[in-house]
Protein backbone atom coordinates (compact mmCIF):
# COMPACT_ATOMS: atom_id res chain seq x y z
CA UNK A 1 0.00 0.00 0.00
CA UNK A 2 1.37 3.41 -1.00
CA UNK A 3 1.94 5.99 1.72
CA UNK A 4 -0.87 8.22 0.43
CA UNK A 5 -3.28 5.25 0.53
CA UNK A 6 -2.40 4.55 4.17
CA UNK A 7 -3.60 8.04 5.08
CA UNK A 8 -7.12 7.25 3.89
CA UNK A 9 -7.78 4.70 6.64
CA UNK A 10 -8.30 7.43 9.23
CA UNK A 11 -10.52 9.79 7.23
CA UNK A 12 -13.66 10.64 9.19
CA UNK A 13 -17.01 11.44 7.60
CA UNK A 14 -17.96 14.08 10.17
CA UNK A 15 -14.87 16.29 10.00
CA UNK A 16 -15.93 19.82 11.11
CA UNK A 17 -14.27 21.44 8.08
CA UNK A 18 -13.90 18.83 5.31
CA UNK A 19 -16.92 16.59 5.93
CA UNK A 20 -17.56 13.76 3.50
CA UNK A 21 -15.62 13.23 0.30
CA UNK A 22 -17.70 14.07 -2.78
CA UNK A 23 -17.84 12.17 -6.06
CA UNK A 24 -15.59 14.85 -7.53
CA UNK A 25 -13.08 14.23 -4.71
CA UNK A 26 -13.08 10.48 -5.36
CA UNK A 27 -12.50 11.11 -9.07
CA UNK A 28 -9.56 13.40 -8.29
CA UNK A 29 -8.11 10.84 -5.92
CA UNK A 30 -8.54 8.05 -8.46
CA UNK A 31 -6.87 10.13 -11.20
CA UNK A 32 -3.98 10.99 -8.88
CA UNK A 33 -3.45 7.39 -7.79
CA UNK A 34 -3.64 6.03 -11.34
CA UNK A 35 -1.28 8.67 -12.69
CA UNK A 36 1.25 8.20 -9.90
CA UNK A 37 1.19 4.41 -10.32
CA UNK A 38 1.64 4.66 -14.10
CA UNK A 39 4.43 7.21 -13.77
CA UNK A 40 6.28 5.05 -11.25
CA UNK A 41 5.93 1.99 -13.53
CA UNK A 42 7.20 4.03 -16.49
CA UNK A 43 10.14 5.41 -14.51
CA UNK A 44 11.13 1.88 -13.46
CA UNK A 45 11.02 0.41 -16.97
CA UNK A 46 14.62 -0.77 -16.65
CA UNK A 47 17.23 -1.01 -13.93
CA UNK A 48 20.05 0.04 -16.28
CA UNK A 49 19.69 3.74 -15.62
CA UNK A 50 21.77 6.24 -13.74
CA UNK A 51 20.43 8.74 -11.22
CA UNK A 52 20.88 11.39 -13.91
CA UNK A 53 18.67 9.35 -16.26
CA UNK A 54 15.92 9.12 -13.64
CA UNK A 55 16.08 12.84 -12.89
CA UNK A 56 15.86 13.64 -16.60
CA UNK A 57 12.79 11.42 -16.96
CA UNK A 58 11.11 12.99 -13.91
CA UNK A 59 11.77 16.45 -15.40
CA UNK A 60 10.13 15.29 -18.62
CA UNK A 61 7.03 14.01 -16.78
CA UNK A 62 6.81 17.20 -14.73
CA UNK A 63 6.95 19.35 -17.84
CA UNK A 64 4.08 17.43 -19.45
CA UNK A 65 2.00 17.85 -16.27
CA UNK A 66 2.80 21.57 -16.07
CA UNK A 67 1.65 22.06 -19.67
CA UNK A 68 -1.56 20.10 -19.05
CA UNK A 69 -2.30 21.93 -15.79
CA UNK A 70 -1.46 25.42 -17.04
CA UNK A 71 -3.24 25.20 -20.39
CA UNK A 72 -6.55 24.16 -18.82
CA UNK A 73 -6.52 26.82 -16.06
CA UNK A 74 -5.90 29.68 -18.51
CA UNK A 75 -9.40 29.04 -19.86
CA UNK A 76 -11.21 29.01 -16.50
CA UNK A 77 -12.93 32.26 -17.51
CA UNK A 78 -14.27 30.79 -20.75
CA UNK A 79 -15.35 27.53 -19.12
CA UNK A 80 -17.20 29.38 -16.36
CA UNK A 81 -15.05 27.74 -13.68
CA UNK A 82 -14.07 29.35 -10.40
CA UNK A 83 -10.57 30.76 -10.58
CA UNK A 84 -8.09 29.25 -8.15
CA UNK A 85 -4.82 30.79 -6.99
CA UNK A 86 -4.20 28.57 -3.96
CA UNK A 87 -1.53 26.20 -5.25
CA UNK A 88 -0.30 25.68 -1.68
CA UNK A 89 -1.81 26.86 1.61
CA UNK A 90 -0.15 29.86 3.20
CA UNK A 91 0.43 27.78 6.34
CA UNK A 92 0.09 24.20 7.56
CA UNK A 93 -0.56 23.27 11.18
CA UNK A 94 2.16 20.84 12.20
CA UNK A 95 2.79 19.31 15.63
CA UNK A 96 1.01 22.14 17.40
CA UNK A 97 2.75 24.89 15.43
CA UNK A 98 2.49 26.43 12.00
CA UNK A 99 4.82 26.04 9.03
CA UNK A 100 4.66 28.13 5.90
CA UNK A 101 3.34 26.49 2.77
CA UNK A 102 6.14 28.16 0.85
CA UNK A 103 9.37 29.88 1.86
CA UNK A 104 10.51 33.02 0.11
CA UNK A 105 14.13 32.92 -0.98
CA UNK A 106 14.16 36.72 -0.82
CA UNK A 107 14.96 36.94 -4.50
CA UNK A 108 13.09 38.20 -7.54
CA UNK A 109 13.82 37.49 -11.19
CA UNK A 110 12.18 37.95 -14.57
CA UNK A 111 10.67 34.78 -16.03
CA UNK A 112 9.26 34.28 -19.54
CA UNK A 113 5.54 33.73 -19.97
CA UNK A 114 4.87 30.50 -21.87
CA UNK A 115 2.61 27.46 -22.16
CA UNK A 116 3.78 26.18 -18.76
CA UNK A 117 2.82 29.36 -16.86
CA UNK A 118 -0.01 28.74 -14.38
CA UNK A 119 -2.70 31.44 -14.62
CA UNK A 120 -6.30 30.96 -13.52
CA UNK A 121 -8.47 33.53 -15.34
CA UNK A 122 -11.91 34.82 -14.35
CA UNK A 123 -13.22 37.43 -16.84
CA UNK A 124 -13.94 36.32 -20.45
CA UNK A 125 -14.16 39.85 -21.91
CA UNK A 126 -10.83 40.89 -20.39
CA UNK A 127 -9.17 37.78 -21.75
CA UNK A 128 -10.05 38.81 -25.31
CA UNK A 129 -9.70 42.59 -24.90
CA UNK A 130 -6.11 42.51 -23.63
CA UNK A 131 -5.09 40.18 -26.45
CA UNK A 132 -5.83 42.86 -29.05
CA UNK A 133 -4.07 45.55 -27.01
CA UNK A 134 -0.92 43.49 -26.47
CA UNK A 135 -0.86 42.34 -30.09
CA UNK A 136 -0.84 45.98 -31.22
CA UNK A 137 1.39 47.50 -28.53
CA UNK A 138 3.41 44.60 -27.12
CA UNK A 139 3.45 43.16 -23.60
CA UNK A 140 4.51 45.55 -20.87
CA UNK A 141 4.89 44.51 -17.27
CA UNK A 142 3.93 46.98 -14.56
CA UNK A 143 3.14 47.11 -10.87
CA UNK A 144 -0.10 45.23 -11.52
CA UNK A 145 1.70 41.97 -12.27
CA UNK A 146 2.44 39.65 -9.34
CA UNK A 147 3.95 36.19 -9.67
CA UNK A 148 5.75 33.41 -7.81
CA UNK A 149 8.25 30.96 -9.20
CA UNK A 150 8.12 27.60 -7.41
CA UNK A 151 11.72 26.50 -7.57
CA UNK A 152 11.27 22.74 -7.06
CA UNK A 153 8.24 22.57 -9.38
CA UNK A 154 9.86 24.78 -12.06
CA UNK A 155 6.46 26.47 -12.18
CA UNK A 156 5.69 30.14 -12.72
CA UNK A 157 2.38 31.20 -11.16
CA UNK A 158 0.94 34.60 -12.07
CA UNK A 159 -1.72 35.62 -9.55
CA UNK A 160 -2.24 39.28 -10.46
CA UNK A 161 -2.44 40.91 -13.88
CA UNK A 162 -3.64 37.52 -15.03
CA UNK A 163 -5.47 38.35 -18.26
CA UNK A 164 -2.67 40.39 -19.81
CA UNK A 165 -0.16 37.78 -18.65
CA UNK A 166 -2.27 35.06 -20.31
CA UNK A 167 -2.06 36.98 -23.60
CA UNK A 168 1.67 37.28 -22.95
CA UNK A 169 2.01 33.49 -22.89
CA UNK A 170 0.86 33.48 -26.53
CA UNK A 171 2.31 36.76 -27.83
CA UNK A 172 5.49 36.82 -25.75
CA UNK A 173 6.49 38.60 -22.57
CA UNK A 174 8.00 38.17 -19.13
CA UNK A 175 7.13 39.13 -15.55
CA UNK A 176 9.14 39.60 -12.33
CA UNK A 177 8.47 36.80 -9.86
CA UNK A 178 9.30 36.07 -6.25
CA UNK A 179 11.26 32.82 -5.98
CA UNK A 180 9.84 30.43 -3.38
CA UNK A 181 10.76 26.95 -2.14
CA UNK A 182 8.61 24.07 -0.88
CA UNK A 183 11.37 21.53 -0.09
CA UNK A 184 10.86 22.07 3.66
CA UNK A 185 7.46 20.35 3.30
CA UNK A 186 8.75 17.05 1.92
CA UNK A 187 9.30 15.34 5.28
CA UNK A 188 6.13 16.79 6.83
CA UNK A 189 3.35 16.85 4.23
CA UNK A 190 1.83 14.04 2.13
CA UNK A 191 -0.98 14.14 -0.42
CA UNK A 192 -3.52 11.84 -2.05
CA UNK A 193 -4.43 14.29 -4.81
CA UNK A 194 -7.46 15.63 -2.89
CA UNK A 195 -5.99 16.65 0.47
CA UNK A 196 -2.71 17.69 2.01
CA UNK A 197 -1.98 15.53 5.06
CA UNK A 198 0.32 15.84 8.03
CA UNK A 199 1.12 12.23 9.12
CA UNK A 200 2.59 13.47 12.41
CA UNK A 201 -0.54 15.36 13.41
CA UNK A 202 -1.90 14.38 16.82
CA UNK A 203 -5.38 14.18 15.22
CA UNK A 204 -6.56 10.78 13.96
CA UNK A 205 -7.80 12.48 10.77
CA UNK A 206 -4.58 13.83 9.24
CA UNK A 207 -6.11 16.15 6.63
CA UNK A 208 -4.73 19.69 6.69
CA UNK A 209 -6.08 21.32 3.53
CA UNK A 210 -7.67 20.56 0.17
CA UNK A 211 -5.50 20.57 -2.95
CA UNK A 212 -6.36 23.05 -5.68
CA UNK A 213 -5.83 20.44 -8.41
CA UNK A 214 -4.66 16.82 -8.35
CA UNK A 215 -1.99 17.78 -10.92
CA UNK A 216 -0.44 20.18 -8.41
CA UNK A 217 -0.27 17.23 -6.01
CA UNK A 218 1.38 15.14 -8.74
CA UNK A 219 3.99 17.84 -9.31
CA UNK A 220 4.63 17.90 -5.58
CA UNK A 221 5.17 14.12 -5.43
CA UNK A 222 7.45 14.09 -8.47
CA UNK A 223 9.48 17.04 -7.20
CA UNK A 224 9.89 15.15 -3.93
CA UNK A 225 11.15 12.07 -5.81
CA UNK A 226 13.60 14.27 -7.72
CA UNK A 227 14.77 15.97 -4.51
CA UNK A 228 15.48 12.58 -2.92
CA UNK A 229 17.46 11.44 -5.96
CA UNK A 230 19.48 14.66 -6.13
CA UNK A 231 20.35 14.35 -2.44
CA UNK A 232 20.91 10.57 -2.41
CA UNK A 233 24.71 10.77 -2.77
Written account of the structure:
- The protein has 233 residues and is α+β, with helices and mostly antiparallel strands.
- The chain has one domain.
- Helix content is 40%, strand content 20%.
- The protein contains 7 helices and 9 strands, in the order H-H-H-H-E-E-E-H-E-E-H-E-E-E-E-H.
- A 4-stranded mixed β-sheet has the order 3-6-4-5, with helices on one face.
- The radius of gyration is 19 Å and the shape is globular.
- It starts with a helix and ends with a helix.
- The mean pLDDT is 87.
Descriptors for this entry?
single chain, 233 residues, three-stranded antiparallel β-sheet
Secondary-structure map:
Elements: H1 3-6, H2 23-43, H3 51-73, H4 76-79, E1 91-94, E2 97-100, E3 103-112, H5 124-137, E4 146-150, E5 155-160, H6 162-171, E6 174-181, E7 190-191, E8 195-197, E9 207-210, H7 214-230
Parallel strand pairs: 4-6
Antiparallel strand pairs: 1-2, 3-6, 4-5, 7-8, 8-9
Helix pairs in contact: 2-7, 3-7, 5-6
The backbone outline, from C-alpha atoms, is globular
* Alpha carbon gap, first and last residue: 27 Å
Q: State Rg.
A: 19 Å
Largest sheet: 4 strands, mixed
Overall strand count: 9
Helix-strand category: alpha+beta
- Strands of the biggest beta sheet: in what spatial order? 3-6-4-5
- The number of helices is 7
Regions with little confidence, pLDDT below 50 for 5+ residues: none
**SSE pattern, N- to C-terminal:** HHHHEEEHEEHEEEEH
Q: What's the overall average pLDDT, rounded?
A: 87
How many domains comprise the coordinates? 1
- Roughly how much helix do the residues carry, as a percent range? 25-40%
SS strand fraction: 15-25%
